[in-house]
Write a sequence for this structure.
């Protein structure tokens, strides 16, 4: 068996960035910017008022000063003229500051009578003007690679970019295997269960940037497995679930080898998730996950998420680890790295009572995977321990 770190190194060697495509900005959130985005204008494109009030010349500002109102400036409708000494323009937030003005007096500091205003006492500090280009200037960059958030989309829109270049989404084919499986909504026989893993993994993969397709369940015979692999043609990553052990009915490794898969490794020193295999299937990477529901999902977080990031051009790196204080004492760990379902609240982590790898209710309740190193000794409540956020 190899370590989790060694398995990740092998998996990274099987994948590479997938190139790029141009998409409308409206479809770019959650995608990875693949080419620097360059602003096409200044923001603001002109000196703009930050408040509702009156645009004036600084040299005219004095308590009790009286100024003549010569016009109005609103957002989208600037004043076509300039402000001379003794003059002012009524202005609203976001409007261009007229030529000649270099300060905005807020409306609360002004008394108006007809076309004249009088400045009050204790004037608020100015100038209440946002300079042209204060946010960004034409030619400024957002550097790639970058996972785009809603805030990024707003910024890109203000840069006047209607479309951007993003990393191509990995095309992932998911194959559940086993005579015991039926799809959700079907009526299982007395010896059958629902194929839950495929749907959980599809959701996880798509949450982290992939396009995943669920292929028909492959039964425990060669023709069915071969047909499933044929349907996976064109995928960048092929994931099988179940059938990766060494039992009489676990045929995935045998059939994959007969189809030319170059196996990189088999079995990882971790729990849950030991019976994991990987290799190359032509142009695609292939990962064989264990069939236990929790094992498959844990491997999805530990291995598939980093693979997707590498394929999206974000670089090869393990899922970030965080630390929290243990809420309870723990006994010693065994020889395998243990990813324990746990709950983190206010900086404290508590492992779930059951760690049975078949219990999806426990996984659904957890918000973290607490990590016990191999042969980790007993731990006391209050000690710091690593975890992965779910």
């Amino acid at each position: 068996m190899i370590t989790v770190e060694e398995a990740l190194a092998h998996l990274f060697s099987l994948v590479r960035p997938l190139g790029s495509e141009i998409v409308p900005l409206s479809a770019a959130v959650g995608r990875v910017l693949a080419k620097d985005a360059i602003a096409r204008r200044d923001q603001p494109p002109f000196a703009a008022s930050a408040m509702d009030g009156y645009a004036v010349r600084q040299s005219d500002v004095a308590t009790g000063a009286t100024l003549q109102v010569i016009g109005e400036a609103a957002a989208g409708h600037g004043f076509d003229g300039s402000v001379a000494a003794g003059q002012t323009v009524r202005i609203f937030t976001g409007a261009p500051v007229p030529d000649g003005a270099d300060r905005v007096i807020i409306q609360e500091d002004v008394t108006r009578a007809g076309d004249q205003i009088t400045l009050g006492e204790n004037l608020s500090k100015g100038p209440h003007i946002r300079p042209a280009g204060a946010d960004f200037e034409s030619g400024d960059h957002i550097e790639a690679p970058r996972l785009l958030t809603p805030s990024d989309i707003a910024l890109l829109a203000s840069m006047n970019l209607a479309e951007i270049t993003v990393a191509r989404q990995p095309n992932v084919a998911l194959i559940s295997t086993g005579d015991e499986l039926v799809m959700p909504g079907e009526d299982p026989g007395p010896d059958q269960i629902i194929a839950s893993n495929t749907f959980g993994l599809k959701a996880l993969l798509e949450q982290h940037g992939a396009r995943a397709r669920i292929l028909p369940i492959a039964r425990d015979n060669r023709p069915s497995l071969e047909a499933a692999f044929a349907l996976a043609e064109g995928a960048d990553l092929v994931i099988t679930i179940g059938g990766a052990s060494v039992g009489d009915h676990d045929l995935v490794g045998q059939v994959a080898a007969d189809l030319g898969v170059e196996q990189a490794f088999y079995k990882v020193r971790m729990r849950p998730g030991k019976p994991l295999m990987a290799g190359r299937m032509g142009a695609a990477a292939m990962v064989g996950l264990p069939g236990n529901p929790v094992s498959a999902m844990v491997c999805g977080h530990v291995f598939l998420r980093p693979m997707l990031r590498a394929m999206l051009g974000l670089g090869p790196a393990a899922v970030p680890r965080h630390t929290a204080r243990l809420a309870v004492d723990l006994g010693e760990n065994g020889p395998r790295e243990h990813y324990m379902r746990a709950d983190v609240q206010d900086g404290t982590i508590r492992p779930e009572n059951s760690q049975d790898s078949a219990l999806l209710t426990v996984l659904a309740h957890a918000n973290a995977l607490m990590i016990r190193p191999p042969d980790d000794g007993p731990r006391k409540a209050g000690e710091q321990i690593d975890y992965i956020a779910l």
About this structure: The CA atoms of residues 294 and 357 lie 5 Å apart.
